From TrEMBL:
Span of domain NTP pyrophosphohydrolase MazG-like: 130-203
Protein name: NTP pyrophosphohydrolase MazG-like domain-containing protein
A matching Pfam family: MazG
Origin: domain of life: Bacteria
Biological-process GO terms, alphabetical: dATP catabolic process; dGTP catabolic process; dTTP catabolic process; dUTP catabolic process; response to stress; TTP catabolic process; UTP catabolic process
SUPFAM superfamilies linked to this entry: all-alpha NTP pyrophosphatases (SSF101386)
Amino acid sequence: MADMEDLLRAFDIHLADGLEVRPAARLRSWAGPAELPLLIPGVLPGDLGAVQRALLPYYPADHPVRVRAEGRVHEVPLDGLAGQNWGEYRIDLFLAPPARAQRERWPLDPLVEVMDRLRGPDGCPWDREQTHETLRRYMLEEAYEAVEAIDDGDPDHLCEELGDVLLQVVFHAQIAREAGRFDMRDVVAGITEKLIRRHPHVFGDASAETAEEVTRRWDAIKRAERGGTGEESLLSGVSRSLPALSRACELQKRAAGVGFDWEDAEGPAAKVREELAEVLGAPPGEREAEVGDLLFAAVNLARKLGVDPELALTRASAKFEQRFRYVERRLAEKGLRPADVSLAEMDALWEEGKRVELRKKYGGK
């Protein structure tokens, strides 16, 4: 590592302006830039990716970084730091402080600190016992509750539910930090770097005029990131944890992207009719498979009609719940339960509930 006097001369640093010196290894515990220039001495070329990820949450992607490599000083934008070949020897980095407006960040630190306390020796016994695996169901539940708030059009509820989703992210990051794998800074830096890398039409010289072009470019960049060998299936990366309808739709979209698709909705509509006939004629041991084929065909039809099948079924379930609850309420007014009456009586109340919905929908008309 070069001595300090040498570095001050190389980067034309004036100590009267102040200086923060932080080795690369200490960036993981860094709270972000103060109103001082930052010097990072003796960085191994193999660590540049981690350094770039650690800095991106605090500096804009195009913030200039001065790099001293093999005796010469170069300047590159921060998001291009790790993509350069700086040789085999340690290099030194220098960054001017970001402008005041650039230093304003969303306040994640208090939440991270609270979670650290909850997981600490004097924290909460329940929080200390949790693992990635035990928290899995909470991640799913909170995501679904956020979606429900979106469907309800309730911004206050959505704000609350997004906080619960964020809590799950911070919780998992804290568990990983304790295991020495990654922390919240790595999560934020990683997604920031990915967004910049996958939007060259915004942060680079590429162009994309439509959402379809953006999607194609995104997929191409993703394939290149995974090696770009051409051996990977187009269907790779479709999460097995997605709800079944959403996963079926995504698989179909991937195949449709290369032309494996019906020309219009009539094709999948005919397929739905064909699969329904097969379900009705299937012996007991084959019914599950045939029902699966029917549902897959129904997803294909929904996709061709421009309908999100997951959302459509969610809303259909909500409508069913609302109408059945109406039947229960009307029966309860008479001191009855659904089990006390005939199907015909419940069906009559069901139709009554539908008429009530329509009157509400169309202003009582």
